[in-house]
Amino acid sequence: MTKVSQKVESASQLINARIHELGDWRGEMLSRLRALIKQADPEVVEEVKWIKPSNPLGVAVWSHDGLICTGEIYKNAVKMTFPKGALLDDPSALFNSCLESNSRRVIDFHEGDKINEEALIALIRAAVAQNTASASR
Known about the structure:
The chain has one domain: Aspartate Aminotransferase, domain 1. By secondary structure, it is of the alpha+beta class. Helices cover 40% and strands 20% of the residues.
């Protein structure tokens, strides 16, 4: 097994562990968001970053020619942060947090929230397109 595939496998395992550890609606939400990200971009790279003693399983991160989004777990929300979200069109108004930021945008998901899957997949694909366009310049 190559070093790269070990790293990817480890990241996937850490995300799986996080989902399993939560064992509640937040784990289910993160799992569903993860599936939609992979559906939107089959070439997405999963990583885990910002591992620290207070967060030993880190933050789930998805990239393609740069960071697409993160999946952060809080007590009352699962936050899906798009670091370059301010550059993206959001015709379905999915972004509901950090709307004043000059760069990032966030979608806060709470218990019982429904996911507008079609709009979220379009937003993820727009983030990938933004990264790809930036990478080719």
